[in-house]
Write a structure and sequence with these properties.
382 residues, alpha/beta, 8-stranded mixed β-sheet, 7-stranded parallel β-sheet, disordered N terminus, D-isomer_DH_NAD-bd, oxidoreductase activity, acting on the CH-OH group of donors, NAD or NADP as acceptor, Formate dehydrogenase, mitochondrial
């Protein structure tokens, strides 16, 4: 490929998944107009209420005028599913596909095979598991996301969800809007966060930010990850590394999921894994819904083994109306919103524009943004 290696540290962070592939696609844009397709959720009447609401189909990351002024074709649609969807009409001749985790366009091996001109898959946000990364690597595509664009947004949201569950907040709110007043119904399962053991499964950018924000609450902080963090940072946060996940889980009053969705983590929290958790455990999951076994979570919430479950990620997304997580007890679920605050949208829109500009100029992206490059997958997706 035309791309130059971006430095030994970036190379070490990548692992080969298709070293023998014969790459026929190149990241550097050839001369001429490019067809760029963006898939975003439709905002309808909300699109005009905030000029910085860039992550919707109507406002299209705020890059339409810029792209079209350079002679490129920019097509945006929310229609991404089904055999006759708008996205599939453009698959055969698009060059760049921009998608988001909040309204994911599932880029399957079949779609990749049909996309003969496709060179670049960009995720406006963090998390590219809606793309068949192995197929993308084998096809010689580049996959990149705006690393760090919404880490603060998600970490803050996780802290909020922990407090909502610990304090049994939602039943109290529902009492107010329904005209009731029954303190005992709330107080019998409301606790302080101080003194509780909180464990994060995954301690990357988001997990570390969450641990830092939890420190003032005087919790017992544990984390499990592929890598142990720098000893100085670990000491500053006051967190303890747990190499064995199964040993960490029974210690925790609260579990927060912060690991990427990979072949290894898909369905990780099944019936057997949940059985290892402390009875009444609270779980927060803003990572990916498919990390959890859907029915196992429902059963554990119904039995009380899981005392509360909160998150904003589902599988599939958007979640169908009959998704059982909508109706299980002691849940505090929302649509996928934690990483798409207005502040985050400004960051990932700017990051997407920057990478498109570099693509047109034949320049490398920031090394940390690559998910697939030169047939290699970033280490977190191994």
């Amino acid at each position: 490929m035309a791309l130059k290696r971006v430095g030994s540290s970036a190379v070490r962070a990548l692992t080969s998944s298709a070293a023998s592939s014969a790459f026929t696609r190149h990241l550097h844009a050839s001369p001429g107009s490019k067809k760029i397709v963006g898939v975003f959720y439709k905002a309808n009447e909300y699109a005009s209420l905030n000029p910085n609401f860039l992550g919707c189909a109507e406002n299209a990351l705020g890059i339409r005028e810029w792209l079209e002024s350079q002679g490129h074709q920019y097509i945006v649609t929310p229609d991404k599913d089904g055999p006759n969807c708008e996205l599939d009409k453009h698959i055969p001749d698009l060059h760049v596909l921009i998608s988001t985790p909040f309204h994911p366009a599932y880029v399957t091996a079949e779609r990749i095979k049909k996309a003969k001109n496709l060179q670049l898959l960009l995720t406006a946000g963090i998390g590219s598991d809606h793309i068949d990364l192995k197929a993308a690597a084998e096809a010689g595509l580049t996959v990149a996301e705006v690393t760090g664009s919404n880490t603060v947004s998600v970490a803050e949201d996780e802290l909020m969800r922990i407090l909502i569950l610990v304090r049994n907040y939602l039943p109290g709110y529902h009492q107010v809007i329904s005209g009731e007043w029954d303190v005992a119904a709330i107080a019998h399962r409301a606790y302080d966060l101080e003194g509780k053991t909180v464990g994060t499964v995954g301690a990357g950018r988001i997990g570390r930010l969450l641990l830092q924000r939890l420190k003032p609450f005087n919790c017992n902080l544990l984390y499990h990850d592929r890598l142990q963090m720098d000893p100085k940072l670990e000491s500053e946060i006051g967190a303890t590394f747990e190499e064995d996940l199964d040993a960490m889980l029974p210690k925790c009053d609260i579990i927060v999921i912060n690991t990427p969705l990979t072949e290894k983590t898909k369905g990780m929290f099944d019936k057997e894994k949940i059985a290892k958790l402390k009875k009444g455990v609270l779980i927060v999951n803003n990572a990916r819904g498919a990390i959890m076994d859907t029915q196992a979570v429902v059963d554990a919430c119904s039995s009380g083994h899981i005392g509360g479950y909160s998150g904003d990620v589902w599988y599939p997304q958007p979640a169908p109306k009959d998704h059982p997580w909508r109706y299980m007890p002691n849940q505090a679920m929302t649509p996928h919103i934690s990483g798409t605050t207005i502040d985050a949208q400004l960051r990932y829109a700017a990051g997407t524009k920057d990478m498109l500009d570099r693509y047109f100029k034949g320049e490398d992206f920031p090394a940390q943004n690559y998910i697939v490059k030169d047939g290699e997958l970033a280490s977190q997706y191994r």
